[in-house]
Target: Toll-like receptor 2
Amino acid sequence: LPTTLEVLDLSNNDLKSLNLFLPALRELYLSGNKIQSLPSGWLLPNLQILTIQSNTLNMFGHSDLQSYERLQNLQAGQNKFVCSCEFVPFLQSEIKGGDVELTDGGESYICDSPLYLQEKPVGQVHLSVVDCHRVLFVSVSCGVALFVAILLCILLWRLHVPWYLKMTCAWLKAKRNSRRRQRCREREGLESLLSFDAFVSYSEQDASWVENFLVPELEEPRDNDEESVNHRPLTLCLHKRDFLPGHWIVDNIMSAMERSRRTIFVLSENFVQSDWCRYELDFSHFWLFDGNAGGEAILILLEPLSKDDIPKRFCKLHKLMSSTTYLEWPQEEEKTGEFWRSLRKALRGEEEDY
Model:
């Protein structure tokens, strides 16, 4: 073609592209072909009118139009436009009034994809933040969800929800295991199943006091003691000595409480801070104070201990400490005799009920 050509009409020629350098061309008509993109503007430096309707053009942008130095009028409707987040805002701004006039009107620019926008005019499309910033939206959503989850976990932890769930599950499981023992208790009688006078719950750090003072004082008979002569020695259940190895800890605790007339809690700072003791106390809060075990608990304070040091969720234990007289281990040696007499009286007083 001559380079001096000013008007060129190649409509309906089944063209797929046009790569001709025509420096003098002012008008170009390419409707009814299979062209997928606008011709390069640097090949047509003087082009003023471009008609490229009914092709397979799917989108064009600001940079494509800027490549035409003198383009004034464009007709590019009736193509298969992909209504992306880049194309829709650009074309809507051109329809309202851009550097290049769309002389075929905004109604001829119809979305072909995505499917939910098919047959909808580009000028009427409103894309959401989710549509245009999916990755950012997912990232922000995940971040917010993670933040909310962390806050929820903190809240649940502060409200001791994990503790309640753990203890409820443990209690339900232990409850099922106790039905067999309950039937046996009904057949053989309660007294035949009571193997111990007391189950002792204590911190491992207080084991020396239990083993060196409590156990010898209550379990070993003394010939020179009138009280020991008149009464049999007491039997204690200690987790280190009497728990069955290989059995579930909750089953061991429950079995020990069921087979004991009373339960002794040796309270101290060590007890409150110990995870083991807290677990034992947690379960007893469900089991013992719910009236499923033996008699009421006997509290021994090895050292001054404020009720505030005991977890607030043990409301019944707080109430018990407020309404029940508990035994305090005396610091003066001469007062220990009265302490042991009071403890034996509490234990044997319960025994007399059986």
Summary: The CA atoms of residues 219 and 323 lie 29 Å apart.
